[in-house]
Write a structure and sequence with these properties.
binds methionine sulfoxide, 25% strand, Beta-Lactamase, 33% helix, alpha+beta, 167 residues
């Protein structure tokens, strides 16, 4: 495992992602523990991209009612956040329900957006799959409007495919 993260000083987002994704591969190689790997991935994303908030919500069984599932907060970097999100609720719950990546340029215009922080202005959420079911979502929040585009989507999708190898 890499002991120190090399952070590209490039102002080009694509260049920073290129350097990051290669290191994420190295960071998780040989380590099977899901929490350890997700923790390091959240930290590496935060350190490199300096997002306002970045973290994972994992699909887990609800304590009540029996048989229902919900998203539960996992490893993250940033201010404290909501711990549980229902299927179809907010951007994360919608990404889970619809099994797709969602980019929200302005969270105030997303019906049902869950505001963990009023500072969050735009957001991208991506699912990772195990046996064709959503196992977790990655949620990235920015304090700037319209901060995510197809470059973020491309490289964060690559990170999700790396995650699918150890979940
Ligand atoms: N805004 C998200 C909730 C999670 S926090 O932003 C960390 C949503 O609408 O699903």
């Amino acid at each position: 495992m890499a002991e120190e993260l090399i952070i590209s000083t490039s102002t080009d987002k694509q260049q920073r992602y290129e350097t990051l994704v290669l290191q994420i591969e190295a960071l998780v190689s040989g380590e099977p523990d899901v929490v350890a790997n997700l923790s390091n991935i959240a930290a590496a994303l935060k350190q490199t991209m300096n997002y306002f908030w970045v973290g994972f919500y994992l699909v887990k069984d609800s304590p009540m009612p029996i048989g229902r599932q919900e998203l539960v907060l996992g490893p993250f970097q940033g201010p404290i956040a909501c711990t549980r999100i229902g299927l179809g609720k907010g951007v994360c719950g919608t990404s889970w329900k619809e099994k797709r990546t969602i980019i929200v340029p302005n969270v105030d215009e997303f019906p049902g957006h869950i505001a963990c922080s009023s500072a969050s202005k735009s957001e991208i959420v991506l699912p990772a799959f195990k046996n064709n079911e959503v196992f977790l979502v990655l949620d990235v929040d920015s304090d700037k409007l319209n901060d995510f585009d197809e470059v973020d989507e491309k490289y964060l999708e690559e990170v999700m495919r790396i995650i699918e190898r150890f979940i």
